[in-house]
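User: Sorry, folds how?
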Amino acid sequence: MFFRNTVSALNLARSPRVVFGLLTILAAIPSALLTIRQPVWVLTGAGSVLAAAAFLSVPARFRGRAFVLLAPCAFVASFASVNLGPLSLQGLITLGIAMIALFALPAAKATSSILSAPDILGYAFLIWASLTTVVTGNLTVSAMQNLIVLSLWFLVPVAIASDRFAQKLHRSDLDLAFVLLAYTSSLIFAVNQTPIALPEFLSPGNRTFGFFAVACLTWLAPLYWSERSRTVLIANLALFLLIAVSLSRVALVLAVGVLMLSRLRTRSIKSLTTTFALTSVAFVVLAGAVVRISVLKDRFFGGDRGFELFGVRFDAAGRSDLWDRTWNSFADSGPSIIVGMGAGASQRFVQSEFANISHPHNDYLRLLYDFGALGFGLWLISTGMLLTNAFLSLRHARSADTGEERVHLSALLGILSLLFGMLTDNVVIYVYVVVPIAVVVGYSRGQKALETASAMRLAARRASRAS
Protein backbone atom coordinates (compact mmCIF):
# COMPACT_ATOMS: atom_id res chain seq x y z
CA MET A 1 0.00 0.00 0.00
CA PHE A 2 2.72 2.43 0.98
CA PHE A 3 4.72 1.68 -2.17
CA ARG A 4 1.67 2.31 -4.37
CA ASN A 5 0.98 5.60 -2.58
CA THR A 6 4.59 6.67 -3.02
CA VAL A 7 4.63 5.81 -6.72
CA SER A 8 1.33 7.63 -7.18
CA ALA A 9 2.72 10.73 -5.51
CA LEU A 10 5.95 10.62 -7.48
CA ASN A 11 3.98 10.30 -10.72
CA LEU A 12 2.97 13.91 -10.13
CA ALA A 13 6.31 14.73 -11.71
CA ARG A 14 4.64 14.21 -15.09
CA SER A 15 2.61 17.39 -14.48
CA PRO A 16 3.89 20.48 -16.35
CA ARG A 17 3.40 22.49 -13.13
CA VAL A 18 5.74 20.22 -11.21
CA VAL A 19 8.31 20.16 -14.01
CA PHE A 20 8.29 23.95 -14.06
CA GLY A 21 8.73 24.02 -10.28
CA LEU A 22 11.72 21.66 -10.40
CA LEU A 23 13.33 23.67 -13.19
CA THR A 24 12.78 26.87 -11.21
CA ILE A 25 14.42 25.38 -8.15
CA LEU A 26 17.39 24.19 -10.21
CA ALA A 27 17.67 27.61 -11.81
CA ALA A 28 17.61 29.28 -8.40
CA ILE A 29 20.86 27.63 -7.32
CA PRO A 30 23.21 29.08 -10.01
CA SER A 31 21.27 32.35 -9.94
CA ALA A 32 21.91 32.67 -6.24
CA LEU A 33 25.58 31.82 -6.66
CA LEU A 34 25.97 34.43 -9.41
CA THR A 35 24.51 37.11 -7.17
CA ILE A 36 26.42 36.23 -4.03
CA ARG A 37 28.81 39.14 -4.58
CA GLN A 38 26.01 41.57 -5.38
CA PRO A 39 24.20 43.78 -2.83
CA VAL A 40 22.06 41.85 -0.38
CA TRP A 41 18.81 43.35 -1.69
CA VAL A 42 19.52 41.95 -5.18
CA LEU A 43 20.07 38.46 -3.79
CA THR A 44 17.05 38.69 -1.50
CA GLY A 45 14.75 39.94 -4.24
CA ALA A 46 15.85 37.36 -6.82
CA GLY A 47 15.71 34.57 -4.30
CA SER A 48 12.23 35.58 -3.12
CA VAL A 49 10.82 35.62 -6.66
CA LEU A 50 12.34 32.26 -7.52
CA ALA A 51 11.23 30.70 -4.23
CA ALA A 52 7.67 31.99 -4.69
CA ALA A 53 7.50 30.65 -8.25
CA ALA A 54 8.80 27.25 -7.13
CA PHE A 55 6.39 27.13 -4.18
CA LEU A 56 3.32 27.97 -6.28
CA SER A 57 4.23 25.40 -8.93
CA VAL A 58 4.44 22.52 -6.45
CA PRO A 59 1.22 20.54 -5.76
CA ALA A 60 -0.71 21.60 -2.67
CA ARG A 61 0.16 18.38 -0.82
CA PHE A 62 3.82 19.36 -0.80
CA ARG A 63 3.13 22.86 0.51
CA GLY A 64 2.17 21.61 3.96
CA ARG A 65 4.14 22.91 6.91
CA ALA A 66 5.82 19.56 7.56
CA PHE A 67 7.10 19.32 3.95
CA VAL A 68 8.35 22.91 3.98
CA LEU A 69 10.14 22.40 7.29
CA LEU A 70 11.74 19.09 6.26
CA ALA A 71 12.71 19.84 2.66
CA PRO A 72 15.78 22.05 3.42
CA CYS A 73 17.11 19.37 5.78
CA ALA A 74 17.78 17.06 2.82
CA PHE A 75 20.92 19.05 2.05
CA VAL A 76 22.17 18.67 5.65
CA ALA A 77 24.89 21.33 6.20
CA SER A 78 25.76 21.74 2.53
CA PHE A 79 24.94 25.45 2.29
CA ALA A 80 27.10 26.47 5.27
CA SER A 81 29.94 27.23 2.85
CA VAL A 82 27.89 29.79 0.88
CA ASN A 83 28.48 33.16 2.52
CA LEU A 84 25.95 35.99 2.32
CA GLY A 85 27.95 38.68 4.03
CA PRO A 86 27.78 38.10 7.80
CA LEU A 87 25.39 35.17 7.32
CA SER A 88 25.74 31.86 5.49
CA LEU A 89 23.02 30.45 3.23
CA GLN A 90 22.56 27.71 5.84
CA GLY A 91 21.93 30.40 8.44
CA LEU A 92 19.37 32.06 6.18
CA ILE A 93 17.59 28.72 5.69
CA THR A 94 17.60 28.19 9.47
CA LEU A 95 16.00 31.62 9.94
CA GLY A 96 13.37 30.78 7.31
CA ILE A 97 12.47 27.50 9.03
CA ALA A 98 12.09 29.33 12.34
CA MET A 99 9.78 31.92 10.77
CA ILE A 100 7.57 29.16 9.31
CA ALA A 101 7.28 27.50 12.72
CA LEU A 102 6.82 30.76 14.65
CA PHE A 103 4.34 32.74 12.58
CA ALA A 104 2.09 29.73 12.06
CA LEU A 105 1.46 29.31 15.78
CA PRO A 106 -1.04 32.13 16.47
CA ALA A 107 -3.15 31.04 13.48
CA ALA A 108 -3.43 27.44 14.68
CA LYS A 109 -6.82 27.12 16.38
CA ALA A 110 -5.82 23.81 17.94
CA THR A 111 -2.80 25.24 19.76
CA SER A 112 -4.67 25.63 23.05
CA SER A 113 -5.47 21.90 22.97
CA ILE A 114 -1.80 21.05 22.43
CA LEU A 115 0.09 23.27 24.88
CA SER A 116 1.22 21.51 28.05
CA ALA A 117 3.84 21.70 30.80
CA PRO A 118 6.84 20.84 28.54
CA ASP A 119 5.94 23.78 26.28
CA ILE A 120 5.64 26.24 29.17
CA LEU A 121 9.02 25.16 30.54
CA GLY A 122 10.49 25.22 27.03
CA TYR A 123 9.26 28.76 26.43
CA ALA A 124 10.61 29.77 29.85
CA PHE A 125 13.98 28.40 28.75
CA LEU A 126 13.85 30.39 25.51
CA ILE A 127 13.01 33.60 27.37
CA TRP A 128 15.81 32.98 29.85
CA ALA A 129 18.31 32.13 27.09
CA SER A 130 17.40 35.27 25.15
CA LEU A 131 17.64 37.52 28.23
CA THR A 132 21.00 36.02 29.22
CA THR A 133 22.35 36.57 25.72
CA VAL A 134 21.12 40.19 25.55
CA VAL A 135 22.31 41.13 29.04
CA THR A 136 25.79 39.69 28.46
CA GLY A 137 26.05 41.51 25.13
CA ASN A 138 26.69 38.35 23.10
CA LEU A 139 24.44 39.24 20.15
CA THR A 140 26.66 37.68 17.49
CA VAL A 141 25.46 35.93 14.34
CA SER A 142 26.56 32.56 15.74
CA ALA A 143 24.72 33.19 19.01
CA MET A 144 21.52 34.14 17.20
CA GLN A 145 21.68 31.02 15.01
CA ASN A 146 22.10 28.87 18.11
CA LEU A 147 19.08 30.52 19.75
CA ILE A 148 17.00 29.99 16.61
CA VAL A 149 17.74 26.24 16.45
CA LEU A 150 17.14 25.87 20.19
CA SER A 151 13.78 27.60 19.73
CA LEU A 152 12.84 25.17 16.95
CA TRP A 153 13.03 22.28 19.41
CA PHE A 154 10.07 23.81 21.25
CA LEU A 155 8.21 25.63 18.44
CA VAL A 156 8.10 22.96 15.73
CA PRO A 157 6.38 20.24 17.83
CA VAL A 158 3.55 22.63 18.73
CA ALA A 159 3.08 23.70 15.10
CA ILE A 160 3.05 20.12 13.81
CA ALA A 161 0.87 18.89 16.68
CA SER A 162 -1.63 21.62 15.86
CA ASP A 163 -1.70 20.52 12.22
CA ARG A 164 -2.27 16.90 13.22
CA PHE A 165 -4.95 17.83 15.76
CA ALA A 166 -6.75 19.84 13.05
CA GLN A 167 -6.27 16.82 10.72
CA LYS A 168 -4.36 18.90 8.18
CA LEU A 169 -1.45 16.45 8.42
CA HIS A 170 -1.66 12.68 8.06
CA ARG A 171 0.73 9.85 8.75
CA SER A 172 1.08 9.02 5.04
CA ASP A 173 2.28 12.60 4.45
CA LEU A 174 5.20 12.12 6.84
CA ASP A 175 5.88 8.65 5.42
CA LEU A 176 6.34 10.16 1.97
CA ALA A 177 8.27 13.18 3.28
CA PHE A 178 10.84 11.04 5.12
CA VAL A 179 11.27 8.62 2.21
CA LEU A 180 11.96 11.52 -0.15
CA LEU A 181 14.27 13.06 2.46
CA ALA A 182 16.21 9.79 2.81
CA TYR A 183 16.63 9.21 -0.94
CA THR A 184 17.63 12.81 -1.69
CA SER A 185 20.17 13.15 1.11
CA SER A 186 21.59 9.65 0.49
CA LEU A 187 22.12 10.40 -3.19
CA ILE A 188 23.92 13.67 -2.46
CA PHE A 189 26.15 12.11 0.19
CA ALA A 190 26.86 8.96 -1.86
CA VAL A 191 27.90 10.97 -4.93
CA ASN A 192 30.24 13.00 -2.72
CA GLN A 193 32.06 9.77 -1.81
CA THR A 194 32.91 9.17 -5.48
CA PRO A 195 35.37 10.97 -7.80
CA ILE A 196 32.43 12.93 -9.27
CA ALA A 197 33.00 16.59 -8.45
CA LEU A 198 29.88 18.26 -7.07
CA PRO A 199 29.81 21.97 -6.22
CA GLU A 200 31.38 22.73 -2.87
CA PHE A 201 28.07 23.87 -1.40
CA LEU A 202 26.66 20.34 -1.98
CA SER A 203 29.18 18.61 0.29
CA PRO A 204 27.65 17.65 3.65
CA GLY A 205 30.15 16.66 6.34
CA ASN A 206 30.51 13.03 7.33
CA ARG A 207 29.62 13.44 11.00
CA THR A 208 26.75 15.82 10.34
CA PHE A 209 25.25 13.46 7.76
CA GLY A 210 25.55 10.57 10.21
CA PHE A 211 23.40 12.25 12.85
CA PHE A 212 20.91 13.50 10.25
CA ALA A 213 20.56 9.93 8.93
CA VAL A 214 19.88 8.65 12.46
CA ALA A 215 17.10 11.26 12.80
CA CYS A 216 15.53 9.92 9.59
CA LEU A 217 15.87 6.31 10.76
CA THR A 218 13.81 7.04 13.86
CA TRP A 219 10.76 7.41 11.57
CA LEU A 220 11.70 5.06 8.72
CA ALA A 221 12.78 2.02 10.76
CA PRO A 222 9.44 1.62 12.61
CA LEU A 223 7.70 2.38 9.30
CA TYR A 224 9.38 -0.63 7.66
CA TRP A 225 8.40 -3.06 10.43
CA SER A 226 4.83 -1.78 10.12
CA GLU A 227 4.44 -1.68 6.33
CA ARG A 228 7.14 -4.13 5.12
CA SER A 229 7.65 -1.89 2.10
CA ARG A 230 10.61 -2.54 -0.20
CA THR A 231 10.94 1.18 -0.87
CA VAL A 232 11.28 1.89 2.85
CA LEU A 233 13.67 -1.05 3.32
CA ILE A 234 16.00 0.35 0.65
CA ALA A 235 15.87 3.78 2.30
CA ASN A 236 16.79 2.27 5.68
CA LEU A 237 19.64 0.20 4.25
CA ALA A 238 21.00 3.15 2.28
CA LEU A 239 21.02 5.38 5.34
CA PHE A 240 22.65 2.73 7.53
CA LEU A 241 25.36 1.89 5.00
CA LEU A 242 26.15 5.55 4.43
CA ILE A 243 26.38 6.12 8.20
CA ALA A 244 29.00 3.35 8.23
CA VAL A 245 30.79 5.03 5.32
CA SER A 246 30.75 8.34 7.20
CA LEU A 247 32.77 6.69 10.02
CA SER A 248 30.73 8.61 12.59
CA ARG A 249 31.11 6.38 15.61
CA VAL A 250 28.28 7.61 17.81
CA ALA A 251 25.92 7.82 14.83
CA LEU A 252 26.77 4.23 13.88
CA VAL A 253 26.05 2.93 17.39
CA LEU A 254 22.81 4.93 17.53
CA ALA A 255 21.76 3.62 14.11
CA VAL A 256 22.19 0.00 15.23
CA GLY A 257 20.18 0.71 18.37
CA VAL A 258 17.38 2.46 16.46
CA LEU A 259 17.11 -0.31 13.84
CA MET A 260 16.86 -3.00 16.48
CA LEU A 261 14.58 -1.22 18.96
CA SER A 262 12.26 -0.07 16.17
CA ARG A 263 10.73 -3.56 16.03
CA LEU A 264 10.10 -3.70 19.77
CA ARG A 265 6.66 -4.98 20.72
CA THR A 266 5.91 -5.16 24.44
CA ARG A 267 2.74 -7.22 24.17
CA SER A 268 4.51 -10.57 24.41
CA ILE A 269 7.52 -12.02 26.16
CA LYS A 270 8.52 -13.66 22.87
CA SER A 271 8.74 -10.28 21.12
CA LEU A 272 10.79 -8.77 23.95
CA THR A 273 13.15 -11.77 23.96
CA THR A 274 13.55 -11.70 20.17
CA THR A 275 14.27 -7.97 20.13
CA PHE A 276 16.80 -8.27 22.95
CA ALA A 277 18.52 -11.19 21.18
CA LEU A 278 18.67 -9.38 17.84
CA THR A 279 19.98 -6.21 19.46
CA SER A 280 22.68 -8.17 21.29
CA VAL A 281 23.72 -9.96 18.08
CA ALA A 282 23.78 -6.65 16.18
CA PHE A 283 26.12 -5.04 18.70
CA VAL A 284 28.33 -8.15 18.78
CA VAL A 285 28.60 -7.99 14.97
CA LEU A 286 29.36 -4.27 15.20
CA ALA A 287 32.05 -4.93 17.80
CA GLY A 288 33.56 -7.64 15.56
CA ALA A 289 33.59 -5.24 12.60
CA VAL A 290 35.28 -2.55 14.70
CA VAL A 291 37.98 -4.98 15.83
CA ARG A 292 38.65 -6.52 12.41
CA ILE A 293 38.17 -3.63 9.96
CA SER A 294 41.22 -1.39 10.24
CA VAL A 295 39.45 1.85 9.30
CA LEU A 296 36.78 1.36 11.97
CA LYS A 297 39.37 0.15 14.47
CA ASP A 298 41.41 3.32 14.02
CA ARG A 299 38.30 5.45 14.47
CA PHE A 300 37.36 3.75 17.74
CA PHE A 301 40.72 2.83 19.29
CA GLY A 302 43.28 5.10 17.62
CA GLY A 303 44.17 8.67 18.50
CA ASP A 304 44.54 9.83 22.09
CA ARG A 305 42.37 7.07 23.65
CA GLY A 306 41.30 9.66 26.19
CA PHE A 307 37.85 8.23 26.92
CA GLU A 308 37.30 5.13 29.06
CA LEU A 309 34.11 3.05 29.28
CA PHE A 310 33.84 -0.26 31.18
CA GLY A 311 37.63 -0.48 31.29
CA VAL A 312 38.04 -0.02 27.52
CA ARG A 313 39.78 3.13 26.26
CA PHE A 314 38.46 4.81 23.11
CA ASP A 315 39.73 7.57 20.86
CA ALA A 316 38.25 10.81 22.20
CA ALA A 317 39.69 12.85 19.31
CA GLY A 318 41.02 15.42 21.76
CA ARG A 319 37.67 15.84 23.49
CA SER A 320 38.95 14.88 26.96
CA ASP A 321 41.17 17.96 27.22
CA LEU A 322 38.50 20.05 25.53
CA TRP A 323 35.83 18.99 28.05
CA ASP A 324 38.15 19.40 31.05
CA ARG A 325 39.16 22.94 30.15
CA THR A 326 35.63 24.00 29.24
CA TRP A 327 34.25 22.57 32.48
CA ASN A 328 36.99 24.24 34.55
CA SER A 329 36.24 27.57 32.89
CA PHE A 330 32.54 27.15 33.70
CA ALA A 331 33.24 26.08 37.30
CA ASP A 332 35.39 29.20 37.83
CA SER A 333 32.85 31.61 36.35
CA GLY A 334 31.28 32.68 39.67
CA PRO A 335 27.63 33.81 39.39
CA SER A 336 27.58 32.68 35.75
CA ILE A 337 27.33 29.11 37.04
CA ILE A 338 23.67 29.91 37.77
CA VAL A 339 22.78 32.51 35.13
CA GLY A 340 25.10 31.53 32.25
CA MET A 341 27.18 33.63 29.88
CA GLY A 342 24.87 33.87 26.88
CA ALA A 343 24.41 31.89 23.66
CA GLY A 344 27.68 31.10 21.91
CA ALA A 345 29.87 31.77 24.97
CA SER A 346 31.13 28.19 25.04
CA GLN A 347 32.06 28.40 21.35
CA ARG A 348 34.03 31.60 21.90
CA PHE A 349 35.91 30.03 24.81
CA VAL A 350 36.76 26.90 22.80
CA GLN A 351 37.92 28.98 19.81
CA SER A 352 40.18 31.02 22.10
CA GLU A 353 41.76 27.91 23.60
CA PHE A 354 42.03 25.55 20.61
CA ALA A 355 43.26 26.30 17.10
CA ASN A 356 41.10 23.92 15.07
CA ILE A 357 38.04 23.38 17.29
CA SER A 358 35.05 25.69 17.40
CA HIS A 359 32.47 23.79 19.49
CA PRO A 360 32.52 22.06 22.91
CA HIS A 361 31.37 18.74 21.35
CA ASN A 362 29.10 18.12 24.32
CA ASP A 363 25.75 19.86 24.26
CA TYR A 364 25.08 19.36 27.96
CA LEU A 365 28.27 21.29 28.64
CA ARG A 366 27.22 23.87 26.04
CA LEU A 367 23.84 24.47 27.68
CA LEU A 368 25.43 24.73 31.15
CA TYR A 369 28.15 27.13 29.99
CA ASP A 370 25.85 29.33 27.90
CA PHE A 371 22.69 29.45 30.03
CA GLY A 372 23.81 28.37 33.49
CA ALA A 373 22.30 25.81 35.82
CA LEU A 374 18.90 27.53 35.62
CA GLY A 375 18.67 27.46 31.81
CA PHE A 376 20.12 23.95 31.65
CA GLY A 377 17.58 22.74 34.21
CA LEU A 378 14.64 24.23 32.28
CA TRP A 379 15.79 22.62 29.01
CA LEU A 380 16.49 19.24 30.60
CA ILE A 381 13.21 19.04 32.54
CA SER A 382 11.18 20.11 29.50
CA THR A 383 12.87 17.58 27.23
CA GLY A 384 12.59 14.90 29.91
CA MET A 385 8.84 15.52 30.06
CA LEU A 386 8.62 15.21 26.26
CA LEU A 387 10.42 11.87 26.55
CA THR A 388 8.08 10.69 29.31
CA ASN A 389 5.00 11.76 27.36
CA ALA A 390 6.22 9.86 24.28
CA PHE A 391 6.71 6.72 26.36
CA LEU A 392 3.27 7.03 27.99
CA SER A 393 1.65 7.65 24.59
CA LEU A 394 3.38 4.53 23.22
CA ARG A 395 2.20 2.42 26.13
CA HIS A 396 -1.36 3.72 25.79
CA ALA A 397 -1.39 3.13 22.01
CA ARG A 398 -0.34 -0.48 22.54
CA SER A 399 -2.83 -1.20 25.31
CA ALA A 400 -5.71 0.51 23.47
CA ASP A 401 -4.64 -0.92 20.08
CA THR A 402 -5.07 2.45 18.35
CA GLY A 403 -2.82 1.49 15.42
CA GLU A 404 -0.58 4.51 16.02
CA GLU A 405 2.08 2.92 18.20
CA ARG A 406 4.85 3.28 15.62
CA VAL A 407 4.31 7.06 15.62
CA HIS A 408 4.93 7.29 19.37
CA LEU A 409 7.81 4.80 19.14
CA SER A 410 9.45 7.06 16.52
CA ALA A 411 9.10 10.05 18.85
CA LEU A 412 10.63 8.08 21.73
CA LEU A 413 13.56 6.89 19.59
CA GLY A 414 14.09 10.39 18.21
CA ILE A 415 14.35 12.05 21.62
CA LEU A 416 16.64 9.29 22.92
CA SER A 417 18.89 9.64 19.85
CA LEU A 418 19.13 13.40 20.41
CA LEU A 419 19.97 12.98 24.10
CA PHE A 420 22.69 10.40 23.41
CA GLY A 421 24.09 12.36 20.46
CA MET A 422 24.46 15.40 22.71
CA LEU A 423 27.05 13.53 24.80
CA THR A 424 29.81 13.83 22.19
CA ASP A 425 28.59 16.24 19.55
CA ASN A 426 26.73 19.46 18.77
CA VAL A 427 23.42 18.02 17.58
CA VAL A 428 21.26 20.44 19.59
CA ILE A 429 22.31 23.26 17.22
CA TYR A 430 22.11 21.15 14.01
CA VAL A 431 18.89 22.37 12.41
CA TYR A 432 18.83 19.35 10.07
CA VAL A 433 18.83 17.01 13.10
CA VAL A 434 16.56 18.99 15.43
CA VAL A 435 13.79 19.70 12.88
CA PRO A 436 13.13 16.08 11.70
CA ILE A 437 12.99 14.82 15.29
CA ALA A 438 10.85 17.78 16.37
CA VAL A 439 8.42 17.11 13.50
CA VAL A 440 8.02 13.49 14.65
CA VAL A 441 7.59 14.54 18.30
CA GLY A 442 4.97 17.07 17.22
CA TYR A 443 3.03 14.53 15.18
CA SER A 444 3.06 12.11 18.12
CA ARG A 445 1.71 14.79 20.44
CA GLY A 446 -0.97 15.85 17.96
CA GLN A 447 -2.06 12.25 17.49
CA LYS A 448 -2.33 11.71 21.25
CA ALA A 449 -4.36 14.93 21.63
CA LEU A 450 -6.63 13.83 18.78
CA GLU A 451 -7.18 10.43 20.41
CA THR A 452 -7.89 12.06 23.79
CA ALA A 453 -10.40 14.50 22.28
CA SER A 454 -12.10 11.66 20.40
CA ALA A 455 -12.33 9.56 23.57
CA MET A 456 -13.83 12.50 25.47
CA ARG A 457 -16.45 13.07 22.77
CA LEU A 458 -17.33 9.38 22.80
CA ALA A 459 -17.64 9.37 26.59
CA ALA A 460 -19.87 12.47 26.44
CA ARG A 461 -22.17 10.84 23.89
CA ARG A 462 -22.44 7.69 26.00
CA ALA A 463 -23.22 9.77 29.08
CA SER A 464 -25.92 11.72 27.24
CA ARG A 465 -27.52 8.50 26.02
CA ALA A 466 -27.44 6.99 29.49
CA SER A 467 -29.15 10.05 30.93
Summary: The first strand starts at residue 83 and ends at 84. Residues 64-263+318-466 form one domain. The radius of gyration is 23 Å.
